[in-house]
Design a protein that fits this description.
Layout: E1 2-4, E2 11-13, E3 23-29, H1 36-47, H2 51-64, E4 66-73, H3 74-90, E5 96-101
Helix pairs in contact: 1-2
The structure holds L-tyrosinamide.
Residues 28-32, 34-36, 39, 58, 61-62, 95 line the site of L-tyrosinamide (TYC).
């Protein structure tokens, strides 16, 4: 952003030195087999949603095919994806958690 310096009338470029980390959307995909209750448990457990919010998000994924669970820096997003997919496989469900640059 270019701003005028009030002291000497010089136009200066006002660049923040703080680099924000790239963020990633963590998403769940719909499938025909994972029980709705299991998806609600995943959203509550790994994304700290209330029962009401988790139910809303689950139904959105069920009807639209995909839905956002949260937005995080790379390392946190990767950990969420790994934890959710591991938990789903341990419970014999095909639920897929993925991440994508925001
Ligand atoms: N479509 C699933 C069913 O009818 C429910 C479901 C919702 C599965 C969201 C996955 O990410 C998902 N049992």
């Amino acid at each position: 952003m270019v701003t005028e310096d009030r002291e000497n009338g010089v136009l200066e470029e006002n660049k923040s030195k703080i680099k924000l980390p790239p963020l990633y959307k963590v998403m769940l995909l719909n499938d025909d087999f994972t029980p709705m209750d299991f998806v609600v448990i995943v959203l509550q457990t790994f994304f700290f949603m209330s029962q009401e919010k988790a139910t809303q998000v689950m139904l959105k994924i069920h009807t639209e095919g995909v839905g956002i669970c949260g937005i995080y820096p790379n390392d946190i997003a990767m950990t969420k994806v790994q934890q959710v997919n591991k938990f789903s496989r341990q419970n014999q469900h095909p639920l897929m958690c993925i991440m994508e640059k925001n």
